[in-house]
């Protein structure tokens, strides 16, 4: 019997797995038939088998049949009563029997009065609102909605009132029955009831404020209070929110009352001010005053944490995160860099007192990244101990900025660790699925298959696979020979080029935890600080991944073409010169493929091939501006580089005339690089405070990619031109070739790149060689307020001053010792060093390119 | 305000705020998935309004004869939801399943001997120190094996403390 049972379950699971991907009523019907037959002969003996049976019936909307199974003999196999009731309530609600479903959910609440989901289902069924049951499939289970899914009840007014009264009375009873002071559910339920009344046009603002205030009195000291009530605040009009905050302020104990409850309530009040948007309406001076006040509250309450174990969270810890967020807001409004420096100091200070506050580390790594001090940012990232599944959900804090940084060794480790984790899981997954099957946990079998699929479709995984190969190319781009070996290992870029074709039809999944990102950069694609102040502070984070998808897809489609484009470009110039510009069959094939890829690349830049050629030509001639390239400047440069390689071999952009039209496209590349780099160098004055993303990032990318690709193509030209034992020119002498317009263009282009790199190197070295003291002074003076009561620096000085007088008896030995070890200059130096590390790495990259171009120049001159 | 439900694979992508805390270990995938595959009733998650993950518990049931017991492998609560007795709620759930569904004799857990905060918490939940396990953690720090007897252990034999410490290789199940 066991083997029959196993075979049956295997068949069913296979069907269900197929259905996970495609859907198909017939398979479900078949599965149901098989099970029925099995039950008739052998019955079912495992709770998980019952779950599978019910699921098969439910997916076919056979709710009545499913209920019959659940409430019959087989249903008794489900031993956890609440679990059984949940299924029963769901089936009844889906069948439209709201009255019975409400009774079932009421039973769940009687067993577990704090069950919030149970309450929402109970209320939804009482009000005959089917939102929870209809849309369940469309909600992304990884990023569920923060708000409650509901719609206006279809009930007539009188019936609605009566149902609401029933719910209120029941909730009242739950509140009275419980002695547990920490039971929040039945009290928050009052708020949900009031919200539904509002939706039905029967809201009473005063009552709503009253219920919110009661909830605050009872639970306002808890850290989770703001997230509990966040969705309810949205019901209130702005003036009512202000009224509420005033009301709460009146009942909040004075901040000088040192008690954990009073501190908790004060913090909650501050968080609510932020959440309600009231904080961002304050003028700068008032906002500053408010932040200073927060620092005072933090210091005054430090004694509360005196006896805590260093492992435990300190009381008031969240204040420093709030302070940081508001200081960044002040920076965004005023553009005074001191506020950013101050935010860094506040967080570093907090981490000196307690090393393990991950929220500070995340904020800090984003602040350091913003300023281009990527090495301290990466250090804090490493201290987050991101490993195993966290690499999928947390890497987005660091990976995107590393991808455009010169810190290639760290980036390589990051990518390797990530890919290893994913690939290991894909390898182990089948075995683990089998373990679930062997232990007859059939629902887990399906879950495991779906989970593996989700990870396989991870957008981050796709990006990492492509970027890992591109990084290898970047790392070896100083030498043509090394690059050719790399390209060979990458199978001449064919797999990624094929992947690029598949990407448009691939489902992409975003598994990143964006909730943990700071407000100013809600996704890796967005950073408000890079643009002008928009008058917002609180940014709703719902559905961010939907906006991300198009951009990510396009970008990765484009990037995956790079290895093949590079390979073909090198091949095309090499064979052209070897064949002395006589187009052979192999040339033609390369040229055709290169053209097709260029067309595809242009399309992924939202352009046609012809328009793309026109645009790069116009920008290089100064007829259009770099701004016309939009955010994809680096990709446009790469397009120009590969275009010139293709034209070199095909000469399709003009005939091969005496001017050497083929070489004109080379001038486009030279001119694009030269003009862009010299303009960027001239515009970047203060290196300490300039955001990395504004110019430095593009400079790094231009040198690491298009300029590097072009350098390799030049190397290929020269290598093919040089006579060697193995290669013999079919026609024409070497002298003829070297005096040809093409070769002159190679020489000129090499010279042009050398000169451009020289300018860049000189500028970079100048930045690094500036005295460290002057940079430290620039940082420290940005927060020196010289006794004034405004501007950056007040908050940090408040922290320093108030804690300097605190004794060990007040705050304990550990905190005292930590405070003693603090040194502001050390943090400023960390920032300076961090920027230097990045600059030095960039210099190394530039120097390696410069060296190989110098070598090339030498080879050319020796001809 | 807590919805307690079985932990599922997708929760691995949602427990970041719990696991970024330095006190919570992030295990490798096969570890989590083996628990899910073998003991899904012992792996539960607590959700707050807005579907936020508050914390979770993972464990197993193992042993033979009177050693048949529930084991708490990890219990973690996000800092935002601490000081609300959530760990107690999760522990009670696991104890309930060990007691009523699997009819185990006791529930046990291991804790670092230096983690006085956690030890105090477990003591409040009626766990007693059954024995000390020498150098249990990476061969460096001692662990304490704490136990709580369930209804099947009528005479509470399972929680009579051992007088001498044991070494990790003397443990019946590890």
Automatic annotation (TrEMBL), chain A:
<protein>
    <submittedName>
        <fullName>Uncharacterized protein</fullName>
    </submittedName>
</protein>
<dbReference type="GO" id="GO:0031416">
    <property type="term" value="C:NatB complex"/>
</dbReference>
<keyword id="KW-0802">TPR repeat</keyword>
<dbReference type="GO" id="GO:0007010">
    <property type="term" value="P:cytoskeleton organization"/>
</dbReference>
<dbReference type="InterPro" id="IPR011990">
    <property type="entry name" value="TPR-like_helical_dom_sf"/>
</dbReference>
<comment type="similarity">
    <text>Belongs to the MDM20/NAA25 family.</text>
</comment>
<dbReference type="InterPro" id="IPR019183">
    <property type="entry name" value="NAA25_NatB_aux_su"/>
</dbReference>
<dbReference type="GO" id="GO:0005737">
    <property type="term" value="C:cytoplasm"/>
</dbReference>
<dbReference type="Pfam" id="PF09797">
    <property type="entry name" value="NatB_MDM20"/>
</dbReference>
<dbReference type="InterPro" id="IPR019734">
    <property type="entry name" value="TPR_rpt"/>
</dbReference>
<feature type="repeat" description="TPR">
    <location>
        <begin position="82"/>
        <end position="115"/>
    </location>
</feature>
<keyword id="KW-0732">Signal</keyword>
<feature type="signal peptide">
    <location>
        <begin position="1"/>
        <end position="24"/>
    </location>
</feature>
<dbReference type="GO" id="GO:0010698">
    <property type="term" value="F:acetyltransferase activator activity"/>
</dbReference>
From TrEMBL, chain B:
<keyword id="KW-0012">Acyltransferase</keyword>
<keyword id="KW-0808">Transferase</keyword>
<dbReference type="InterPro" id="IPR051646">
    <property type="entry name" value="NatB_acetyltransferase_subunit"/>
</dbReference>
<feature type="domain" description="N-acetyltransferase">
    <location>
        <begin position="2"/>
        <end position="151"/>
    </location>
</feature>
<dbReference type="InterPro" id="IPR000182">
    <property type="entry name" value="GNAT_dom"/>
</dbReference>
<dbReference type="GO" id="GO:0004596">
    <property type="term" value="F:protein-N-terminal amino-acid acetyltransferase activity"/>
</dbReference>
<dbReference type="Pfam" id="PF00583">
    <property type="entry name" value="Acetyltransf_1"/>
</dbReference>
<dbReference type="GO" id="GO:0032956">
    <property type="term" value="P:regulation of actin cytoskeleton organization"/>
</dbReference>
<dbReference type="GO" id="GO:0031416">
    <property type="term" value="C:NatB complex"/>
</dbReference>
<protein>
    <recommendedName>
        <fullName>N-acetyltransferase domain-containing protein</fullName>
    </recommendedName>
</protein>
<comment type="similarity">
    <text>Belongs to the acetyltransferase family. ARD1 subfamily.</text>
</comment>
<dbReference type="InterPro" id="IPR016181">
    <property type="entry name" value="Acyl_CoA_acyltransferase"/>
</dbReference>
